[in-house]
Amino acid sequence: MSAAPQAPGLASYPDEVREEVARVREVVARLHAELPRWELVVWTAGNVSQRLTTADLFVIKPSGVTYDELTPESMVVCTLDGELVDGTRSPSSDTAAHAYVYRHMPHVGGVVHTHSTYATAWAARGEPVPCVLTMMADEFGGDVPVGPFALIGDDSIGQGIVETLSESRSPAVLMRNHGPFTIGADAKAAVKAAVMVEEVARTVHISRQLGEPTRIPQDRVDSLYDRYQNVYGR
Ligand SMILES: O=C(CO)[C@@H](O)[C@@H](O)COP(=O)(O)O
């Protein structure tokens, strides 16, 4: 399906914006290939976006295109209201959710949504993943929270993501009966959070088959989180 721009087109933006769009299209296209590589998606069921630093725009994938068909040129550019600025196809059906997050969380530069199996299984049960692994303390600073049930297409999913993540250190939320949405400083960080949330959801699920896993005390969670966020990899 072809899409008509709803907002002033890319030609009306300065050179530096158009240059950044070209770079971010490459980044976002490349990162979409990480979703099947880490087995986080089937068919077309997940999306990655990244906000521009030079304009209130973001780049996201077109809707319903398989990952092996995605190219930098096929990536779609939208305003932070989710209006199409540039692209030959309709933007992802989760565009409104990504746009809402960018409007309300200025520190967020990347958003990812998948239906990865274990994280989505926890979302279907509406149960947060308890912080029982050092990797969880490092990455999520506590439990992975559950967001409300919300219908796709309008601001409801975005509102649920923002409300839930504003009260948590976690970069991942399990939207009830739907699946994980993750955030990061850029799209790569949000993809990493999507990989990590699936990994811990799987491990904690397996642990539960063996008995009840033990929670890490809060002071240890805080200490691990501080080290990982401020020292690890520096
Ligand atoms: O959640 C859903 C559908 O249930 C969507 O995120 C998923 O299928 C991906 O759709 P898009 O191809 O990004 O429009």
UniProtKB/TrEMBL annotation:
SMART domains: Aldolase_II. Its EC number is 5.1.3.4. Transmembrane segments: none annotated. This is L-ribulose-5-phosphate 4-epimerase. InterPro entries: Aldolase_class_II_sugar_metab, Aldolase_II/adducin_N, Aldolase_II/adducin_N_sf. GO terms for molecular function: aldehyde-lyase activity; L-ribulose-phosphate 4-epimerase activity; metal ion binding. Belongs to the aldolase class II family. AraD/FucA subfamily. It comes from Sanguibacter keddieii (strain ATCC 51767 / DSM 10542 / NCFB 3025 / ST-74). GO terms for cellular component: cytosol. Residues 26-205 form the Class II aldolase/adducin N-terminal domain. Pfam families: Aldolase_II. GO terms for biological process: pentose catabolic process. Its cofactor is Zn(2+). SUPFAM superfamilies: AraD/HMP-PK domain-like (SSF53639). It catalyses: L-ribulose 5-phosphate = D-xylulose 5-phosphate. Keywords: Metal-binding, Zinc.
